[in-house]
Design brief:
Two copies of one chain form a homodimer. By secondary structure, chain A is mostly helical. Chain A has 16 helices and two strands. Chain A has a two-stranded antiparallel sheet. At the A-B interface, helix 2, helix 4, helix 6, helix 7 and helix 8 of A face helix 2, helix 4, helix 6, helix 7 and helix 8 of B.
């Protein structure tokens, strides 16, 4: 079984039983959690944990935890009071299928479930590492991380942002969870302090590269492959890396960031092939 | 300094600095977190931890964590797509002051902050207890707890619920966090398994009594004292303990539940005065 199948099998097992009055809530959580996606964040947790000599079963709750947080953020982002998007990954958005109230609550419940599965997986032996990994994810997904980045995004929705603002926003909004995933994998796997720092650098670089690629794809991609309409940034007069720097400079920047990310893997003595391939794959994706 | 002042001092210290682009988010979190309230849940954490011989400073992040979860749930409950309430505790609801988007995100960030402060407070010595306490809160605030109860509430908004449904809803929606607070205090304080169970029974009983009292106050209270309009349940044709059982039976039930709660404290050898007083005070409150 490949890594993504293992992650998806674990995700579905962590969902509560539908045999309850609030069945619709669980269905709504499952609808978004099992909607596919690249599963980049959980793969990063497992890859870094493995690289540091960690055990797959101990890392899996943290891999699934970060994916649940990512999923809840997408559900809330699509709500009418936020980006008001009717489609996500080529399917109807959660609130279109289940209603705004259930979608809001499904997001809230996915955030709680993430913290539940991570914390309840702890044993007396790895509890201290677990608390550190949970604290990292909670920080990167909160007010000074992902949610903060979303607020910056909303603040600059109808005004021009400069490159520094864009960088801070994406460092929080997009790189936030990616950095969290890299750090968590290291912590659970028993990395040194220096390795955790290197994993954070790796996450920051591929996270920003990921966002620049998102901006490029919004201009050049095939809508069918992408699973969402293109041209939305230009239509909304939104500042993006492409609008501020141009396509060519953006492509160069992605290459630079990917090189930097791969260089930071020199701090690990294990087999870095998986992480190197992932960074290169993200830098050349067309969806 | 009394217990509530200590809790409020700690709450404000845990909030991130406002010296950032996303200042409005932090202000919105603070607006609701520092809006007063009875601080029942954090008091329960501290009381149970103290009863089990725990240290105040170790228990405080868990006390503040449960209050942050409670606060986020109130912000989300008031949103237009949920209960659509413009007022909370005699002040404008969060989304009326900061807008729906920021209110939604402030709720999300408060949930994350709760898990961050609890997990990052762990030391190598108490990490296993911390993971267990975090797992308890995450479970009781998620799909099979508070959020699940909210879904049942929405499901029965426009149809008659029987007493069993009402009981299940309140056991999750209202008692959920109250039970979590009691259990967490015990776990952090180093209680036995039997004591944790007794604390859960205490929480379940005072939680249901609390909800019945809420239903009574919606019929009989002074609006000014209560800080919100009365008569809303009857106006919405909502099934409540009062509509299903009548006022007199409800008052008897509160007394029974309070007696049961106090009886469960017999499992503890320490000074139970604080918890006994709290149960009695909740049973006779007029706001």
């Amino acid at each position: 079984m490949n890594m993504i199948s293992k992650i998806e099998e674990a995700l579905i097992e962590y969902l509560p039983s539908k045999d309850c009055i609030e069945k619709k809530l669980i269905e709504s959580m499952e609808y978004s959690l099992m909607a596919g996606g690249k599963r980049i964040r959980p793969c990063l947790v497992l890859e870094f944990s493995h690289l540091c000599g960690g055990d797959l079963n101990q890392a899996m709750p943290f891999a699934c935890g970060v994916e649940m947080i990512h999923t809840y953020s997408l559900i809330h982002d699509d709500l009418p009071c936020m980006d008001d998007d009717d489609y996500r990954r080529g399917r109807k958005a959660n609130h279109i299928v289940y209603g705004e109230d259930t979608a809001l609550l499904a997001g809230d419940a996915l955030q709680a479930l993430a913290f539940e599965i991570m914390s309840s997986s702890a044993t007396e032996e790895n509890a201290y590492r677990a608390t550190k990994a949970v604290a990292v994810l909670a920080k990167y997904c909160g007010a000074v991380g992902m949610v903060g980045g979303q607020v910056i995004d909303l603040t600059y929705e109808d005004k021009t942002a400069n490159i520094d603002v864009l960088r801070e926003m994406d460092s929080k909004k997009t790189s936030g969870l990616i950095k969290a995933a890299c750090e968590m994998g290291c912590i659970i796997g028993g990395a040194t302090h220096r390795q955790v720092q290197a994993a954070r650098d790796f996450g920051e670089s591929i996270g920003i590269a990921f966002q620049i690629m998102d901006d490029i794809l919004d201009v050049v991609a095939d809508e069918k492959k992408l699973g969402k309409p293109t041209g939305s940034d230009a239509g909304n007069n939104k500042s993006t890396y492409v609008s501020l720097l141009g396509l060519e400079k953006c492509k160069l920047l992605i290459d630079e960031l990917t090189d930097k990310a791969i260089k930071s893997l020199e701090n690990f003595s294990g087999d870095i092939t998986g992480l190197k391939d992932l960074a290169l794959k993200l830098a050349s994706r067309d969806y």
